[in-house]
């Protein structure tokens, strides 16, 4: 299921650096197809395409891949040049080490550090030189390095833990799709912990595939949340399939070869529930459809399994703070 939505917190946070530099954020939002009024509603969300477009506009306008959060700019093309520098490395470990060295050449750049911890390796980002009040850049860098590494070896790197050198924020529920696995706040540093076996894996990409990768990266890496191999992510993918969308918990448990009780317990351990996952999928599908004019609001309600439009109106307002009609009006 590709139509995941992005919390407006991340839109507001992404704009902080540009606003600090006196940029016209309203104009940037308009160009990205995002209504400014949406940002006033704490629960509102945007489509991933809109978010990716906003990031690209910010990079172009500021000529800064650090989006105005660093002491010095990281000019557009720096990330691409780093990728060209690492693409011919023999292993992921060599590639990550070379990438860290590459950014170490730039004064005032957030330091990327790779450290072994027994059978584990920690990739950490030093944000002490950044003006990043909502930690948007440091979180973006963690997502980008994780997904870049996964792309290089052709398989998702399973995260054992993501640590954050700050207190748990109010929007921490959004992190499940950004950082699958255990999350720890108030840590000594912000970083990713994963098994050291990945470091020896060969790179499966080359200069040809890198060219395609760079057409949409790193914006696409940030705009497409990924449930990883968590149970929540697996269930989300199963529910997203045509015909299985509104399956019940018992049916999904059977597909996953476990009892309903075990499924409920594992979801509780991940801080989720079956109903929450269904509601999130319904919410994201509703936002996706409301952004297009193909279906009426009543048809969308029926497609999402609501017995009557009024029930859909109540649920959508609870999810986003807006009625379906108001949300569709904001999109046009």
TrEMBL record:
Keywords: DNA-binding, Transcription, Transcription regulation
Domain (HTH araC/xylS-type): residue spans on this chain: 233-330
Transcription regulation in keyword set: yes
InterPro entries on file: AraC-type_N, Homeodomain-like_sf, HTH_AraC, Tscrpt_reg_AraC-type_HTH
Protein name: AraC family transcriptional regulator
Lineage: Bacteria, Pseudomonadati, Pseudomonadota, Gammaproteobacteria, Pseudomonadales
């Amino acid at each position: 299921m590709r139509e995941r939505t992005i919390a407006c917190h991340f839109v507001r946070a992404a704009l902080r650096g540009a606003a600090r530099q006196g940029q016209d954020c309203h104009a940037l939002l308009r160009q990205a197809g995002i209504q400014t009024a949406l940002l006033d509603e704490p629960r509102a969300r945007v489509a991933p395409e809109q978010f990716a477009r906003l990031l690209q506009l910010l990079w172009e306008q500021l000529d800064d891949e650090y989006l105005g959060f660093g002491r010095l700019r990281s000019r557009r093309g720096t990330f691409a040049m780093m990728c060209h520098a690492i693409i011919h490395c023999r292993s992921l470990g060599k590639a990550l080490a070379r990438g860290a060295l590459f950014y170490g050449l730039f004064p005032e750049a957030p330091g990327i550090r790779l450290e072994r911890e027994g059978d584990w390796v920690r990739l950490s980002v030093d944000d002490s030189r950044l003006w990043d009040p909502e930690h948007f850049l440091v979180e973006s860098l963690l997502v980008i390095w994780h997904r870049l590494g996964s792309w290089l070896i052709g398989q998702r790197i399973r995260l054992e833990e993501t640590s954050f050198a700050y207190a748990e924020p109010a929007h921490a529920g959004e992190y499940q799709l950004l950082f699958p696995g255990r999350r720890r706040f108030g840590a000594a540093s912000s970083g990713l912990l994963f098994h050291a076996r990945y470091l020896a894996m060969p790179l499966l990409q080359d200069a040809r595939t890198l060219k395609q990768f760079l057409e949409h990266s790193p914006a696409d890496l940030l705009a497409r949340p990924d449930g990883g191999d968590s149970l929540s992510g697996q269930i989300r993918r199963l529910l997203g399939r045509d015909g299985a969308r509104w399956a019940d918990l018992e049916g999904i448990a059977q597909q996953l070869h476990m009892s309903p009780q075990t499924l409920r317990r594992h979801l509780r351990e991940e801080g989720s529930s079956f109903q929450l996952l269904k509601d999130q999928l319904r919410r994201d599908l509703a936002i996706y459809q409301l952004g297009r004019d193909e279906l009426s609001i009543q048809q969308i309600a029926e497609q999402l399994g609501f017995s009557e439009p009024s029930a859909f109106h109540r649920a959508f307002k609870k999810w986003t703070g807006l009625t379906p009609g108001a949300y569709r009006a904001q999109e046009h």
